[in-house]
Design goal:
single chain; alpha+beta; Four Helix Bundle (Hemerythrin (Met), subunit A); Helix Hairpins; Heat Shock Protein 90; six-stranded mixed β-sheet; five-stranded mixed β-sheet; 18 helices; 18 strands; about 45% helix; phosphoprotein; two-component regulatory system
């Protein structure tokens, strides 16, 4: 696998060669129209970018020659240097030297730079070409020029999106062919289908790989953001970045951009205290903000941590009770993780009390919706007076999702793995009827449990979700799902396997049913409904 440095180098070379070709074209245009300010400005911009990029990646010869040429065109722009034939010749030689240096970055052969050429560039830069010092004649690089094309190309994201959709369709057909080969027990068909499986898998990962970008493309924009917000807030904040090399699907990063900006802004404006307040409680005057990324199997974990005032759980509970989101007696017994979930309720954080004491601003519901839309998860960890962390778990790809397959009443269903916490088997006697629902003790935690058959197939007026008599058999298969720091147990008839699925949107009239997030086709040709865990969890929170 390529190192990140190698990828950066290839991108630099591809861009530098584009600049080289464009500079040749623009200087030729300038020969015909020496007073064209637009062309001069474009040449100056390209040389400036090339100088900066080359210096950043450590190619100092390229940076130095670009700098001399940039200076020369700056003088031409300011009418301090005439664009005479001999000056044009020197500038073309300088551009050709740049081309040689760029093309030979990977070569063992060192480009021999003619000192007479550098002297000519220096003469032009120092505006001496019109004085007594004459330009020396040099061997032009262009006499033996070979035309080459870059090994890298730029592709529009929408083209990759289309390609990913086609791969998704192919995966569905592949699984169908594999299933048929097993049913027909044909050896030749088995060999062909096995080969098709490998090719499709390689194609899937190749397309997914082509869509990956470094998280640094977003993270590296935040030092300036933090500086501007902290200055406006009259606060001092130090930002620590890590994990910029972690790769993620470009579309996911695009969707998360506004959410991450929102969380960073909130952390500075409402989380981190002003220097005077920090000093009073024994904290350093400079607040700390950490933005990190790491890979975790099929997910990317982004964590934003501040050392600010933290969340006052008591204040959030009282605000939740005042807004009739939860009865007072229930609120008292809620674990902190469930209390933090109220902060994501629409409009909840508009309450002045919560904004002031919890240190979280407006619009966390918007952040939650963005994360839900890509099948991600978000949770909060906080300690009053010490600080707060937002932990975002994001899929590396949108189109193909890992899912757990199961059956209810001879119908196949799937749940995205990112919302699946664990799978347990419990005896019916371990389920307890409390109020209108069933609850069970799972790893020391009281979890609400529901029989999915009843939820999906009965009218609300007929539901008796706390009635154990409707359950089949003595041992119950339960999938523990999690959403917004809340857990829910789903009883199913049969558990099958984990499988990558391609989720397609539902057609009418099923698209109006909130509990379904889409549909996929299994290898057997059977339709499989994909459950929307956020919708199911919200249903029970509202019911409670």
């Amino acid at each position: 696998m390529k190192s990140r440095e190698q990828e950066y180098k290839e991108i630099f070379i591809a861009e530098a060669l584009e600049y080289y070709d464009a500079l040749n074209r623009l200087i030729s245009e300038l020969e015909k129209k020496p007073q064209d300010d637009r062309v001069l400005a474009e040449i100056f911009r390209m040389l400036h970018n090339l100088k900066a990029n080359a210096k950043a990646i450590g190619y100092l010869q390229i940076s130095d020659v670009s700098h001399k040429l940039e200076t020369a065109f700056g003088l031409i722009r300011n009418k301090e240097l005439s664009f005479s034939d001999e000056v044009v010749g020197v500038l073309f030689d300088g551009i050709d030297l740049l081309g040689e240096l760029i093309k030979n970055i990977d070569s063992e052969r060192q480009v021999e730079i003619d000192p007479v050429l550098i002297r000519n560039l220096d003469i032009v830069v120092d505006s001496l070409s019109d004085s007594t010092v004459e330009l020396a004649k040099v061997q032009k690089f262009s006499t033996s020029r070979n035309l080459t094309l870059s090994d890298l190309i730029y592709i529009q994201v929408k083209k990759l999106d289309h390609l990913m959709n086609l791969v998704g369709e192919l995966i569905i057909d592949r699984d169908r062919i594999l299933s048929l080969s097993r049913e027909l027990d044909n050896d030749e068909l088995k060999v062909v289908s096995s080969h098709l499986y490998r090719i499709t898998e390689d194609l899937q990962y190749s397309v997914m790989d082509a869509r990956l970008v470094s998280i640094g493309t977003l993270f590296n924009k935040f030092p300036r953001v933090v500086r501007d917000i902290s200055t406006a807030e009259k606060k001092e904040v130090n930002l620590d970045l890590s994990g910029q090399d972690i790769q993620i699907d470009r579309n996911i990063l695009q969707i998360m951009t506004d959410s991450l900006l929102h969380l960073v802004r909130n952390a500075i404006t409402h989380g981190i205290e002003k220097p005077v307040q920090r000093s009073k409680v024994g904290k350093p005057k400079v607040g700390s903000l950490q933005l990190s990324a790491r890979s975790d199997r099929e997910s990317v974990i982004i964590t934003l941590t501040d050392d600010g005032r933290g969340i006052d759980v008591g204040k959030v509970k009282r605000a939740a009770v005042d807004r009739h989101l939860v009865p007072a007696d229930v609120a008292d017994g809620l674990p902190d993780s469930e209390v933090y979930s109220f902060l994501f309720e629409p409009g909840f954080s508009l309450a002045k009390e919560v904004t002031e004491f919890s240190g979280r601003g407006v619009g966390l519901d918007v952040v939650k919706n963005a994360i839900d839309s890509i099948g991600g998860r978000i949770r909060i960890e906080s300690e009053k007076g010490k600080g707060t962390s937002f932990i975002l778990q994001l899929p590396t790809s949108i189109a193909v999702k890992g899912a757990l397959l199961f059956e209810i009443d001879n119908i196949f269903y799937a749940i995205p793995l990112i919302h699946t916490d664990s799978v347990v088997a419990l005896d019916k006697d371990e389920l307890h009827e409390v109020g209108e629902v069933l609850v069970a003790d799972i790893k020391g935690e009281t979890v609400t449990v529901v029989y999915l058959d009843e939820l999906l197939n009965m009218e609300e007026s007929q539901m008796r979700l706390g009635d154990k008599t409707r359950l089949k058999g003595q041992v119950q298969n339960i999938i523990i799902v999690t959403y917004n720091n809340r857990k829910l147990g789903l009883i199913v008839d049969k558990l099958y396997r984990q499988q990558d699925i391609v989720v397609k949107p539902l057609s009418k009239p099923l698209d109006s049913i909130d509990l379904y997030g889409g549909v996929t086709l299994l290898g057997t040709g059977k339709v499989c409904l994909v459950l929307d865990v956020p919708a199911i969890t919200k249903y029970f929170v509202n019911k409670r």
